[in-house]
Design brief:
The complex is a heterodimer of chains A (77) and B (492).
Chain A lengths: L1 H20 L11 E2 L2 E2 H23 L4 H5 L7
Antiparallel strand pairs in A: 1-2
Helix pairs in contact in A: 1-2
Chain B lengths: L1 H19 L8 H6 L6 H11 L3 H14 L2 H20 L1 H11 L4 H8 L3 H33 L6 H49 L3 H11 L12 H6 L11 H7 L9 H28 L4 H5 L2 H9 L3 H38 L6 H25 L4 H14 L1 H9 L5 H22 L14 H18 L6 H7 L1 H6 L1
Helix pairs in contact in B: 1-9, 1-16, 3-9, 3-12, 3-13, 4-13, 4-16, 5-13, 7-8, 8-9, 8-16, 8-17, 8-18, 8-20, 9-13, 9-16, 9-17, 10-13, 12-16, 16-17, 18-20, 18-21, 19-21, 20-21
Classes of the chains: A mainly alpha (77), B mainly alpha (492).
């Protein structure tokens, strides 16, 4: 459990950094082509992959395991 | 003729899958409304993804890119790829756990019990259904206009809308949530494959990606950058829009279908890449179209993908495109219709008519009746409303997103009260009406022309209303806290 807690906050911080990196002001007027695509588009495709990596780490290393135990079932409705 | 044959074949397959799913129906209301909470990781990923894709993903993405350039991908796709799975991570499994423990089938059941208020539940029911209706209409009307476009005007719009309603009616009323999910798996596969095929064929016909993009760079270099098309403030504040998944009733009900909290893991991990796979072809083809078809204007932009296929790969590919659009429309439309039917059955008929005591078979019967009624109502309405409903649809995202503090407070904030939730919901309703009336005439309305989206302002106000309204009123009792925060209550 300690190991998972150790991962949790750095990964939350990584999500926040991704949120900031989404605003790529430095590429706003850059029309360079990379692999035949504009660099502003390539950056955001890479951004989507990086987001996938952080989220994968999040579900592997900082998953709220207690939820499956808590879901037991009380039959409220 | 080929196009129509492919569309008919596609719809027959969809119908067959939906009807076949009934063989696994267990005859319980829990099975009909939330597939007996049995969906495993892969099915949950595909069905959740499909339920969140609309016709806009296929046609609108290309149309927007045609007008505004590559910035559309950052604005709508990569932002969704970050925000939506993050909402799934923090909210989805927690809603699922509460839903399983307390037996919830709808979001209103949860909110009503969380804050012990029938009035608040009814208000949220009205707001959620009111914001959902334009979506339903867009699905029916989008299907109709797509069929008209791909058949060169041979099939009128009302036929396409009718076909969608009839097919969805058959498998949602017969198969319930299980039918909806099975069909969504197939439709999402079609959607993912279609973009790749259309991209591959057209780009090859254009002489390869580098050559085609080079032509755009020569004639419309502004489309290869954000430039003046998108303001930095808009890129920043547009990230509020995908928060809407936290309050979409059809997404909420889909979360309840999971077998376990762990079933959410692949959905969260793979969602950003799935979004990219679906959006890249549309955005790139929309930009490339500007060199081939420079004079479509804003009105013709939404049909740019159809026109590109007509120009470079008519016949089979045009049929596949239509099938892909139908897949995108129906995979969200069926979930929305099913959610509306579930809410009317559980939140109105069962709660008010039967005081929450209603036999399993009667719940299923009422669910089916409401599904049919909603489809008939939506179809008839689609024949009389004008196309400005599409504009209203865009605003509905704003409304659902601005309600996000309600679900966050319900799950994470023990001190939140029904008065805070009520203040937050009413703040959204009032500000939403204000901004819609002010922004209606401008397709690109932002606050004072700064680029700041109205959703950011409404979200801030609804968060403040939730906090102030809760802090000024009496805290919830120990019984409520034990019911909804058992871990914390146990530790205390």
């Amino acid at each position: 459990m300690k190991e998972r807690n150790a991962w949790k906050w750095p990964l939350y911080a990584a999500l926040s950094v991704l949120y900031l990196l989404h605003n790529d002001l430095w590429l706003w007027y850059d029309a360079t082509l990379v692999f035949g695509l504009p660099v502003g588009l390539v950056y955001h495709v890479g951004f989507a992959v990086a987001t996938g990596v952080v989220l994968t780490l999040l579900v592997l290393k900082a998953w709220p395991d207690h939820l499956d135990h808590e879901a037991g079932g009380e039959g409220g409705h | 003729m080929t196009t129509l044959a492919i569309i008919v074949a596609y719809l027959v397959i969809v119908l067959a899958i939906g009807l076949f799913s009934h063989r696994f129906f267990k005859g319980t209301s829990e099975d009909f409304f939330v597939a007996a909470r049995t969906l495993g990781p892969f099915i949950l990923l595909v069905s959740l993804f499909g339920a969140n894709m609309t016709a806009f993903t296929v046609l609108g993405s290309a149309g927007e890119a045609y007008m505004e350039g590559i910035g559309v991908f950052a604005l709508m796709a990569s932002s969704s790829g970050l925000v939506i799975p993050t909402v799934f991570y923090f909210v989805g499994p927690r809603v699922w756990a509460l839903g399983k423990r307390r037996g919830y089938l709808t979001p209103v059941q949860f909110f009503r019990e969380r804050w012990g208020s029938d009035g608040l539940g009814l208000l949220l029911f009205v707001v959620q259904i009111a914001l959902l209706v334009p979506y339903l209409l867009i699905g029916v009307m989008g299907g109709g206009s797509t069929l008209t476009q791909v058949t060169g005007g041979e099939v009128p719009g009302w036929v396409g809308g009718l076909v969608i309603c009839v097919v969805v009616l058959a498998y949602v009323t017969y198969g319930g949530m299980r039918g909806t999910v099975w069909v969504n798996v197939f439709q999402t596969a079609v959607l993912l494959a279609l973009g790749f095929i259309a991209f591959w064929v057209i780009v090859n016909k254009l002489g390869g990606l580098e050559a085609a993009m080079g032509r755009v760079a020569a004639t419309h270099p502004d489309l290869l950058i954000r430039g003046e098309h998108i303001e930095p403030w808009k890129l920043l504040t547009y990230t509020c829009i995908p928060l809407s998944v936290g309050m979409f009733p059809h997404m909420f009900i889909h979360w309840l279908t999971a077998r376990s909290a762990a079933s959410f893991k692949p959905t969260i991990a793979f969602y950003p890449v799935c979004i990219a796979i679906v959006w890249i072809p549309g955005v790139v083809l929309g930009v490339l179209a500007r060199a081939d078809l420079p004079d479509l204007g804003a009105a013709g932009a939404n049909s740019v993908l159809v026109k590109m296929i007509d120009l470079h790969a008519p016949g089979v590919l045009a049929g596949l495109l239509a099938a892909g659009v139908f897949a995108a429309i129906m995979s969200s439309f069926d979930s929305q219709v099913h959610a509306a039917g579930t809410m009317f059955t559980q939140d109105i008929v069962r709660h008010y008519g039967f005081h929450d005591r209603m036999s399993e078979s009667r719940q299923i019967m009422v669910g089916r009746i409401f599904t049919v009624a909603i489809l008939i109502f939506t179809y008839l309405l689609s024949l009389v409303v004008d196309r400005s409903i599409f504009k209203l649809g865009v605003w509905c995202f704003t409304g659902f997103a601005a309600l996000f503090p309600v679900v966050v407070a319900a799950i994470f904030w023990k001190r939140s009260t029904k008065w805070g939730a009520l203040a937050s919901t009413l703040t959204v309703a009032v500000l939403w009406i204000y901004f819609v009336s002010h922004g209606w005439k401008s397709a690109d309305y932002t606050l004072g022309g700064t680029g700041i989206m109205p959703v950011a302002a409404i979200l801030l106000a609804s968060t403040a209303a939730m906090i102030i309204g809760s802090l000024l009123t009496r805290p919830p009792g120990a019984e409520t806290l034990e019911k909804f925060f058992p871990a914390e209550a146990g530790r205390a």
